[in-house]
# Entry
Amino acid sequence: MGRYVGPVCRLCRRERQKLFLKGTKCFTEKCPVERRGYPPGQHGQMRRPKVSEYGVQLREKQKIRRMYGLMEEQFRNYFEKALRRPGRTGETLVKMLECRFDSVVYRIGFAPSRAAARQLINHGHLLINKKVVNVPSYSLRAGDIVQVRDKSRKLDAIHSSMKRMKDSSMLPWLSLDKASMSGTFLQVPERADIPLNANEQLIVELYSK
# Structure
């Protein structure tokens, strides 16, 4: 499976909003979106023509795909699965993405970004129900417990990320026990509870053409 290895801040500038791909840098004045709020490239500051309906749909799809760190084929596979499930396809798609292992690790606070979460998972630093799972796309179920391995509990990256997590900011479908460095995936989230500034219905319209 391929992956994007270029500068991630460039992706945020292309979408003209923070996608929170760089961890702590996204919350500082060094964030390129704050300093250069125009698309990258030599023509980024030029006046651009009105975006077509297709262009708006495409940008929304690219934005969500980049937020979750997926390549096009992988993202399309998620859409096809959501299409076969009951309910609104767009909402189902977002819920499925939030159930991914790397997304849960990021939301709980073990990692400052989804990319960092994937690295921790790939290196075997995290457990699900006391078993090592090194697949970032693994889909969690209600009641699954995510915890840091004993030998990985001294990692500065995990501790510094957990320090930024406040109990009041924990999402309703997750719980965190900082003392035991473990978190519980309580339930599949509702779309209204997911802090995602995007219109997933545009993706449905795009792929339906």
